[in-house]
Amino acid sequence: MTTGHVTVDAVEERCILVGVVTPEISESTAQEYLEELEFLAETAGAITEKKFLQKLPMPNPRTYVGTGKLEEIKNFITSENIELVVFDDELSPSQLRNIERELQCKVLDRTILILDIFASRARTSHAKTQVELAQLQYMLPRLTRMWTHLERQKGGIGLRGPGESQIETDRRIIQSRIALMKEKLKEIDKQMAVQRGNRGQLVRVALVGYTNVGKSTLMNLLSKSDVFAENKLFATLDTTVRKVVIDNLPFLLTDTVGFIRKLPHQLIESFKSTLDEVREADLLVHVLDISHPTFEDHYEVVNETLSELDKTEKPVILVFNKMDAFLSAKDEDELEQKQIELEELKKTWMAKLNNTKCVFISAQNKENIEELKQMVYDEVHRIFKVRYPYNNFLY
Ligand code: GDP
Ligand code: MG
Questions:
Q1: If you placed Cys at 128, which of 122, 142, 145, 319 could pair as Cys (CB 3.0 to 4.6 Å)?
Q2: Virtual CA dihedral for 138, 139, 142, 145, nearest 10 degrees?
């Protein structure tokens, strides 16, 4: 079946990245987006050779960037033998078609890149099903490529050409596959709900945060387990749940998939049961990477996604992680400077958060972990007491 499905394979491909600067997105923000896209491309196995940015009132509806810019890109990829171009936003089916026709090479967008990484990292049948569903949903409207082109040539008459019937067949195959995946997910969701129900009365704590901030590292540290953690985006795709005991007080700790800017909406839908872990948690431990230049932006993105998921207000502990990386300095002077910066940062956040609990740690160097544990203990204990007011003897 020719689905037009694209995957980035294990062999390193050389790519270029393309983004836009608009009145809403400043140049520095657009640069950061592209840097993140570079990290995504790297995670998927591609080396970025150059980044192109264009200032526009809005992305061009036909070709995302303007004609001149596309020409410039075309010249570059021809002379440098580039085989892959990645755009920073989700391209519409017609944009994708127009750009491919112009550039004559593999064209991907942020969405399909993220889906590709997810696909290569899915381990359980649950995660695999969720990713496949999202991929199929992305693919379906983009199957029209060839035949819309034909349609235009023939002025809408005599459309029943051979290309069209092939696409019709493909479309039907994809549609029935989507239906199948949805069925399968429904089954899995039911099983997971039962599993969650069976976990009994334990208080549930979920680690949430932007991707690559150190959630899995912290999970390992708190539960002494062995969850896969590495410096790549979305190293973990499946949620892991562990029973953790602090001072005789048991609770369940969940490691979740990381959030990211411009998360494909297909994913939010198909990852419903993964996100249910967050929805059903009693306490959220929101992890931040303070060594990242735009961690405040990450904080906002995560909060927005959380409030989309769940309207109820849950208690949150904010964990400012990677203090060691924040403080890394080449000499004494710089270190002193950074320590002052850290103090400033603490003050600003404490003022901003007023009642939210927060703690500054280094999961890697195991700094302030006891403080964090105490905080989690206090919260879990408080939740437990509210839920079981007459249970005086247990804890
Ligand atoms: P997740 O995506 O949020 O689960 O993040 P991971 O736990 O997989 O960690 C991402 C990367 O950050 C890994 O390379 C970790 O070793 C690294 N990391 C985690 N905690 C710290 C820390 O406190 N300091 C530093 N320097 N690196 C850390
Ligand atoms: Mg992780």
A1: 122
A2: 160
Residues with CB under 6 A from ligand 1: 209, 211-217, 229-231, 235-236, 258, 321-322, 324-325, 362-364
Please state the domain extents for the chain.
Answer: 13-123, 201-387
Residue to substitute in 239, 302, 321, 364 for testing ligand 1 pocket (most ligand atoms within 8 angstroms of CB): 364
* 57-60 long-range contacts, CB within 8 A, separation 24+: 57/22, 57/23, 58/22, 59/20, 59/22, 59/89
Residue linked to tokens 């034909």 = 150
* DSSP code at position 290: T
Taking only the tens place, the pLDDT of each residue in 127-162 is: 888 888 988 988 888 875 444 444 444 443 444 455
Do the strands 106-109 and 240-246 form a parallel or antiparallel pair, or are they unpaired? unpaired
The rounded mean pLDDT for the chain is: 84
Per-residue tokens: 104? 């004559």
Instruction: Choose among 261, 359, 358: nearest CA to 304.
Output: 261
Residue 41 has, within 13 A of its CA and on its CB side, a CA count of 28
Contact residues for 394 (Cβ-Cβ < 8 A; gap 6+):
388
Q: How far is the CA of 231 from the centre of ligand 2 (A)?
A: 9
Q: Are strands 316-321 and 357-360 parallel, antiparallel or unpaired?
A: parallel
Task: Say if residues 203 and 253 touch (Cβ distance below 8 Å).
Answer: no
What top-level class would CATH report for the domain 201-387? alpha beta
DSSP 297-323: HHHHHHHHHHHHH--S---EEEEEE-H
pLDDT at 359: 95
Residue 90, number of CB atoms within 10 A of its CB = 17
